[in-house]
Design goal:
Layout: E1 3-10, E2 14-21, E3 36-40, E4 44-50, E5 53-59, E6 65-67, E7 73-77, E8 83-90
Antiparallel strand pairs: 1-2, 2-8, 3-6, 3-8, 4-5, 4-7
Length: 91
């Protein structure tokens, strides 16, 4: 399976995407051009790598967190089960 993303909804002011990472899979390096909120659907541990280093993060279902625009990063699932989250970007 690896990494899958699916656009769920988009309008002039938002974009909603579901992401699914298999164990060991990564999103690859990317940058968001808009501020966004992440809503984890499943629990799991991911490693977020950005230009200033790596950080482990424990995702908890339905415990959203926000991120600013413009930070280049990648996310790797370091759990033994798939990690699923929904991302809402404010356009």
């Amino acid at each position: 399976m690896g990494y899958l993303s699916e656009l769920l909804d988009q309008s002039s002011d938002h974009r909603v995407t579901r992401h699914r990472l298999a164990p060991g899979a990564s999103t690859g390096w990317h940058r968001h051009n808009h501020p966004y909120v992440v809503v984890p659907i499943t629990s799991g541990t991911v490693t977020i790598t950005s230009s200033d280093g790596k950080a482990q993060f424990d995702m908890q279902p339905l415990r959203p967190y926000s991120r600013p625009e413009g930070v280049e990063h990648s996310i790797r699932n370091t759990s033994s089960a798939p990690v699923v989250f929904v991302e809402v970007e404010y356009l």
